[in-house]
Amino acid sequence: MNDREKEALLASFAAFLDEAPPPAPPAAGQEDDYSLMAQLVALKTEVKTEARQFREALDQFRDLLATLQAGHVTLAAELDRRRADEKKRERELLRPLLVQLLDLYDRLQAGLAAAAKSSPRRRWLGLGCRRDQALQEAIREGQALTLRRLEDLLHEQGVRPLPAAGLPLDPHTMRVTETCARPDLPDGVVVAELRRGFLWGDALLRAAEVQVNRATAEPETAAKP
């Protein structure tokens, strides 16, 4: 094809384009449907992205919450252990002091009992004047007041007397220091408290020293030939 033929072909194609009708516009509503679909697709993609991010954040929050809960449990257990250790140390330090207070309690009680026995005898023998009797009475009242205050203090610390008299011997809380033989009482029963025992809460603070009845003699072992 020579140049003249090419120019003729281009001229006829240009004339065809000039005579061709313009493209028909999109139908009514078709453009809105396309844009709506595009917006829905974009929104769906955005929702998926945000949902994925939310799940990731929720997983991180759950991990953090589990870590905090585990830390709380560990901290609570450590605090309980330290409180128990401190309470144990306090009891270890307080126990000797309470035992000494019990010894003081015994001495005060014994002193009051001795004073009560000697006071009538002195009045009967006429060995003291009124001033001495008043002084002795004041001393006894002071000892009685001190004894009551000491009892209150021991009670505040959870110290209470251990019942023993009339009960069967308990080797865990009682020590036998004397025995007697009374056939009217069961064997092994506590006849008298020689020194009162005390409990500290549920623990034994001081064992009771008791007199126990031995109404029945133990059978003698046969001698070996």
What does the model show?
With about 220 residues, the chain is an alpha+beta fold. The chain has helices at about 5-20, 30-125, 130-155; strands at about 160, 175-180, 190-195, 195-200, 205, 210-215. The strands form two sheets. The protein has a three-stranded antiparallel β-sheet with strand order 1-4-5. The chain has a three-stranded mixed β-sheet with strand order 2-6-3, with no helix packed on it. Helix 2 packs antiparallel against helix 3 (about 130-155). The N and C termini lie far apart (about 155 Å).
Task: Write a brief structural summary.
The chain is an alpha+beta fold and 225 residues long. It has three helices and six strands.
The total of beta strands comes to 6
Name the helix and strand elements from N-terminus to C-terminus, one letter apiece: HHHEEEEEE
Estimated radius of gyration: 52 Å
Structural class category:
alpha+beta
Helical percentage:
55-70%
Report the uncertain regions: 219-225
Distance between the termini: 154 Å
Query: What is the spatial order of strands in the main beta sheet?
Result: 1-4-5
- The DSSP helix count reads 3
What's the shape? rod-shaped
Biggest sheet features: 3 strands, antiparallel
As a percent range, the share of strand residues is 5-15%
Mean pLDDT across the residues is 80
